[in-house]
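Design a sequence for this backbone.
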């Protein structure tokens, strides 16, 4: 029997006035997937999350979450979704213990243990008020509240904002463990590409056009390649982006080496690049 996708977006269009963000977007996120929604600032990642949560009605098209239209989610379905907002910082006046007690009655599957597991990884006291915690520690408490919900869909919108490398690593490891062997789905946005590379299986890259690139992380990394050539290189179909670096030019393309050399009639040198460079090669730096 076919399983219901966790998220299904069909022919989605969205505009703010004359500014079009999405056109004809189709997207499916299957249960158990860690899905990275990637794109530079202001391309529309939060817009899509707001549509999925039912906070925003799309201009056209359908968005289904656990098989229900996102703008009419039933209460039991809503309880299956845990959302981390960009920069969530309410309830600062409560202590760590108080905020756990405050949140727990709202969630039928609340797992106090998961909250305190994450707290135990930090050097803080349970009687400390949130407004006495460092920024990273407070973010960790908020993530603890999210994990304790034991939701089936976790939406983490820029979870890494303000976290130092140590806390980010801790979180990535914790998240991997948390979902291992479950059918939990994670939809994540972040500007820290190295974190995403370790976590994410499927990606959608939103750029300033209304086209959205979708594939597995491994296909993108294998198929979207970087080559260097001497001197300048004119714009040619099949070269996604050119980047002049002194005497050489970096070319980013989905073509393999032989195809690109035939096209430009020059020798190239393949270059191993990080996921971040590849991503920037796709969306551009500015
Ligand atoms: N209510 C609104 N009215 C008009 N324009 C809006 C509205 N909300 C968002 N926008 C614009 O739509 C675009 C997409 O915004 P969105 O917040 O979805 O981007 P984002 O990809 O999440 O960005 P970031 O990475 O900076 O969080 C931006 O240019 C933003 O200014």
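Sequence:
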């Amino acid at each position: 029997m076919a399983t219901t996708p966790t998220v299904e977006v069909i022919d989605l269009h969205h505009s703010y006035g004359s500014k079009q963000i999405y056109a004809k977007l189709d997207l499916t996120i299957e249960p158990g997937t860690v899905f990275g929604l990637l794109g530079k600032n202001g391309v529309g990642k939060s817009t899509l999350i707001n549509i999925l949560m039912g906070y925003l009605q799309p201009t056209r098209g359908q968005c289904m979450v656990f098989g229900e239209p996102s703008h009419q989610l039933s209460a039991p379905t809503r309880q299956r979704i845990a959302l981390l907002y960009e920069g969530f910082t309410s309830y600062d006046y409560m202590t760590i213990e108080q905020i756990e007690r405050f949140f727990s009655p709202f969630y039928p599957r609340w797992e106090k243990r998961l909250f305190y597991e994450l707290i135990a990884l930090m050097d803080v006291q349970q009687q400390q008020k949130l407004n006495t915690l460092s920024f990273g520690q407070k973010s960790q408490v908020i993530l603890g509240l999210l994990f304790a919900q034991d939701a089936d869909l976790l939406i983490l919108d820029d979870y890494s904002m303000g976290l130092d490398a140590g806390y980010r690593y801790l979180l990535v490891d914790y998240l991997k463990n948390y979902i291992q062997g479950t059918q939990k789905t994670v939809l994540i946005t972040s500007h820290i590409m190295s974190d995403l590379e370790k976590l994410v299986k499927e990606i959608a890259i939103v750029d300033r056009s209304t086209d959205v690139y979708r594939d597995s992380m491994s296909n993108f990394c294998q198929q979207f390649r970087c080559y260097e050539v001497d001197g300048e290189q004119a714009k040619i179909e099949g070269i996604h982006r050119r980047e002049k670096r002194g005497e050489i030019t970096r070319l980013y393309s989905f073509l393999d080496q032989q195809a690109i050399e035939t096209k430009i009639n020059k020798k190239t040198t393949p270059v191993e690049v990080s996921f971040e460079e590849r991503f920037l090669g796709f969306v551009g730096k500015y």
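Residues 16, 21, 39, 41-47 surround adenosine-5'-triphosphate (CB under 6 Å).
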